[in-house]
Amino acid sequence: FAEFIERAGNFGVPLTLLMLSGIPVKGIKSWFEVVRPETAINAKALSNVVVCLRVIVCLLFIGHGWLNLIEKSGLIDQYKALGFTDPAATAHIVGLFELAAGAIVLLKPVRPLLIAFLIWKMGSELFYPHWELFEWVERGGSYGAILALWFALPRTKALLHQTTSPMT
Questions:
Q1: Which burial class, exposed, middle or buried, applies to 59 when counting CB atoms under 10 A from its CB (0-12, 13-18, 19+)?
Q2: At what angle do helices 43-69 and 87-107 cross, to 10 degrees?
Q3: pLDDT tens for residues 7-30?
């Protein structure tokens, strides 16, 4: 199950794109329509997308943190290959850090922290022995979800401010 939720970027990003195409307002038919970037998005739809992205990013961090806490053999091997003398302790520290990152993103995402988490995620994925580039590319949805959340946060605040401020 930890592997499944750690892959939230793989299934969550397409879900977010489906949300942008009109789910549930327009229905399933809208899944097969072209998403037009020039079409304006309203505050409610963007707010829903931000919530979806927060959950996705939270899940990918919690899933990976969980895998570290249960000492998944592939991660332990990775830490051994990197030269850590106590790979299990390293996995526990990384796991706790990633659980905290997931909680922060879910409860109160902060843009500078999102960039730090993105750098952490991208950097740590480069250290898989023998498959560095493949693993890094395969996790593109995870990086995209963090980056999309980073871009969406200020837009959500701006749209909400426009809809709640009185007209002059």
A1: buried
A2: 160
A3: 888 888 888 887 777 665 666 776
- The crossing angle, in degrees rounded to 10, of helices 87-107 and 111-124 is 150
Helix, strand or coil, per DSSP, at residue 89:
helix
State the Cα–Cα distance between residues 49 and 165, nearest whole angstrom.
22
114-150 tens-digit pLDDT: 999 999 988 887 777 667 677 777 788 889 999 999 9
Candidates 168, 76, 91; CA nearest to 129 is: 76
Q: 0.70 exceeded by the pTM?
A: yes
Q: 30 near 81, Cβ under 8 Å?
A: no
What 20-24 contacts at long range (C-beta under 8 Å, 24+ apart), as own/partner pairs, is 20/45, 20/49
